[in-house]
């Protein structure tokens, strides 16, 4: 038992985390990487705890298993690979997407499978799975700092596991009945006051320790998707959307279906408009495209410009953003819709659909860089867009 922790009704989430991290270090239970503070802690007996996942019917029946990349869950990743299940691991800090699928080489030995289950193996033997990858997760395995026998969980405080689960709900990868497992040391199983839990907190159905398998029979509902009005609890919402590009795509998609995606501290009307950006009527099609059409077919290459800025051509301050990897099926109006959605409407849009690219002109470099930050990682039509400042700002033909 975790004797160092007083009755937890008097403790905040952070108090509980600190007490558990302190206890693991002081008792000699902590394992690499050390110190365990600020982490999902690794502990003595983690491989033993992980191996008991093979005794769960929900594991035996599962075909696709999502396991977090934390060190104490390495044994669970190995068990999934050894059982020839599809193993999905969240992209670290969700920087480039949601999942990576671990793909061991053909005829992989036990040693290679063990390497695939490590953090380095996740880098060396994985392929990204996009939003349109049609993942169908049958079992979710998450790390915890603390968990109660009722299934109430406390992570390390950054909110990534909760956000990952909510994103999986939003993309249809998990269902309400998809079981969630966590793997901890016995000393991490403590009482947690229910009032500490929020709507976005993920609960668990099974707890595995080196000595026990606990079925929680948790009745508290799991998150039903991304709670946009609370999503900024992870960090400020603009910073969050910048750090986790796939969130921008999910927010865009949910907005298109009519869902309220207003962020905390964002006025609802600002989710739909941007007073500083030109509106659609201000972007008019130029009936005489520039001469440098190249091999683009007429009708697929055209320039749209801000009708209120007739001296645009001669301006020396214009900065251009390159947008590549546009899917063949994408239409210019769909790109324009996304630009309005992210409040990065350009002064001029140079559409080159046949080359799967477009160029966006902005009035200064700062505005262009904000557009790059906003659009980077956005997925349209199944393709993740390539977005960067154009190589040559002097000759955009």
Automatic annotation (TrEMBL):
<dbReference type="GO" id="GO:0003723">
    <property type="term" value="F:RNA binding"/>
</dbReference>
<protein>
    <recommendedName>
        <fullName>Methenyltetrahydrofolate synthase domain-containing protein</fullName>
    </recommendedName>
</protein>
<dbReference type="InterPro" id="IPR035979">
    <property type="entry name" value="RBD_domain_sf"/>
</dbReference>
<dbReference type="InterPro" id="IPR034359">
    <property type="entry name" value="MTHFSD_RRM"/>
</dbReference>
<dbReference type="Pfam" id="PF01812">
    <property type="entry name" value="5-FTHF_cyc-lig"/>
</dbReference>
<dbReference type="Pfam" id="PF00076">
    <property type="entry name" value="RRM_1"/>
</dbReference>
<dbReference type="InterPro" id="IPR012677">
    <property type="entry name" value="Nucleotide-bd_a/b_plait_sf"/>
</dbReference>
<dbReference type="InterPro" id="IPR037171">
    <property type="entry name" value="NagB/RpiA_transferase-like"/>
</dbReference>
<dbReference type="InterPro" id="IPR002698">
    <property type="entry name" value="FTHF_cligase"/>
</dbReference>
<feature type="domain" description="RRM">
    <location>
        <begin position="319"/>
        <end position="392"/>
    </location>
</feature>
<keyword id="KW-0694">RNA-binding</keyword>
<dbReference type="GO" id="GO:0005737">
    <property type="term" value="C:cytoplasm"/>
</dbReference>
<dbReference type="InterPro" id="IPR000504">
    <property type="entry name" value="RRM_dom"/>
</dbReference>
<dbReference type="InterPro" id="IPR024185">
    <property type="entry name" value="FTHF_cligase-like_sf"/>
</dbReference>
